[in-house]
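Quick one: co-fold with adenosine-5'-triphosphate.
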Amino acid sequence: MGMIEIKDLHKSYQMGSNSLHVLKGINFSVAPGELVAIMGSSGSGKSTLLNILGMLDEANEGSYVLDGVPIKNLNETKAAQYRNKFLGFIFQSFNLINYKSAAENVALPLYYQRMPRKERQEKALKYLEQVGLKEWATHLPSELSGGQKQRVAIARAMAAEPKVLLADEPTGALDSKTSYEVMDLIQKINDAGNTILVVTHEPDIADMCKRIVHLKDGVIVEDKKVKQVRAADYV
Amino acid sequence: MFSRDRWKEIIEVLTTNWFRTLLTAFGVFWGILILIILLAAGKGLENGIRADFGDIATNTMFVWTRSTTKAYQGLPIGRRFSYTTDDVAAIWAEIPGLRFVSPRNQIGSSEPNVIRGVNKGAYNIYGDYPEIIRQDPLTITSGRFINPLDIQESRKIAVIGQGVVQDLYEEGTEPIGSFVTIQGVNFKVVGVYKKEGNEGNQNAQKEIYVPFSSFSKAFNRGNRVGWMAITAQDGMPITAIKEDIFSLLKKKHKIAPDDKRAVGHFDLYEEFSRVESLFGAMRFIAFFVGILVLISGVIGVSNIMLIVVKERTKEIGIRRALGASPFSIKLQILMESVFLTIISGMFGIVVGALFIYGINYVLDLSGPVDMFMSPTVHVGVVISALVILIVSGLFAGFIPARSAIKVKPIEALRTE
Ligand SMILES: Nc1ncnc2c1ncn2[C@@H]1O[C@H](COP(=O)(O)OP(=O)(O)OP(=O)(O)O)[C@@H](O)[C@H]1O
Ligand SMILES: [Mg+2]
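Sure, here it is.
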């Protein structure tokens, strides 16, 4: 039983009278504990696929089952609930809330789980410690470097203990040294058993995953297991 | 809904841009301030005019005689006539729904007409029944008022005003039990009165009341009646029965039924109703103008919230990606708007109250002003203002809250 099962997924964007067919029948599944890189040239539909997996967007056709739960015809309230329970997001541009401290940002998904305040704060600190930023808990995002921001974002994605982490070019805005630090973190999280999907167009980042899926013109053209390169060797 | 985190979020958002928050709050503050001040000013005017009516029983009319303006049953035009004590009995007997019918006689003089020892003065003297105190109230400060026995036995007693005491008695002299000579007849003083609500009018304190019967005998009025004060029972406006009384009086005095002028009257109820409707209109205008100003404030809040929501599109997208439900986002925006509206509105109420307090203070210092007295705002008005604020806060937040969740999460995340 896979963690993610998608079958014959189609997505097109309507722009006036033209429609742009972006995903043209995607089939793949991800087993628990996998670390998958999704690669492909710009405009190949990587983000589109990830957003559908993240329930931020909806497919036009096809089925999507997440850990045995069929994802279809969700209203926005239900979708929000599923995102909160099942998924953690890591974005290229970090997407931290700029007037909240690092700890408050990490605690936010827990707030939407209605977790009591005290517990929430403890948990946020625990995850900040895991990403090595405990001392920065009270700092605002504007006081952090890019790499630190992304680590806060990873802590936030982890805080709700989701089934799957979805990262869209998590290293896209970072230099190679910080990129490897972030990948090291992601690998460690994966080592602990978490399922992670990473969209990237950098081959060295993809090599740090356990499996690479290649998208081209809306279909998967290659799907192979690779020998994982440990980021720690480069840090 | 009222968790600490919600409030923290609200305060955080509102304090990120102080200047804008203050500017937004000002519209609502101003609206409620104007509303409160207008209502208070209306109330002040109302109090002032009511004070001029004094404590008088407002369901009352006064009836007097004038010369006839029509010939009737062989009697000439321009004839003068007089009411008598028979008329009082007839009104009681034939008109239902009355509470008091008080015949009155009166002498006024510009020459001194009352003497006590070496002091003298000119006063209005009234011959009255005990009931008059219920119709045109006065407060007995010492002694007593006229009683039925005084009427029965035609006692020569008098109730005098504080103004009269000041004029005719040396400091410290006890007026009760002393005698005053009214137009050559001695009356024993049994009471002193004061009229409330007439502070501005010194003449109201300078009157003398004696029993109706004694007055008639002492000043040779026979059974004639100068005028009458007629009060109807509560719930039965005097205005509704007065025509019946006029018809009765006209019949008894052989006056043409269509003679409009022969029976003179002043209908307090009608006057008062007219003033009441004026008060109503004033309140309406105050509410109307106040609410309009408030609405413009509310639209201001709504507009700013809309801009804030637009600016926070990305943040809202992030929150939704992290699991915020649309309801939670909506609630957040609504609460921000209601909170802002209520805080600024409360501030307006407080400043309005201080302003009114100040006006009252100045009025107290400078003494009474015509037609204006102690402007106040009723607690009920403050409470309804608060209700209006909450409702308008909800209204102000409604459109922004809707627009906040109209954008799909993916699009919200994509905005920069
Ligand atoms: N909301 C949208 N409306 C219309 N077209 C869209 C929309 N989102 C994406 N597209 C189009 O769909 C195609 C795939 O976009 P997508 O963002 O998935 O590409 P990508 O593989 O992530 O590319 P990149 O590597 O540049 O991020 C592109 O041609 C893009 O222009
Ligand atoms: Mg992309």
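If it helps, Chain A touches chain B at residues 51, 54, 56-57, 76-77, 80-81, 83-85, 89, 91, 95-97, 99-100, 108-109, 111-113, 117, 156, 160 (CB under 8 Å).
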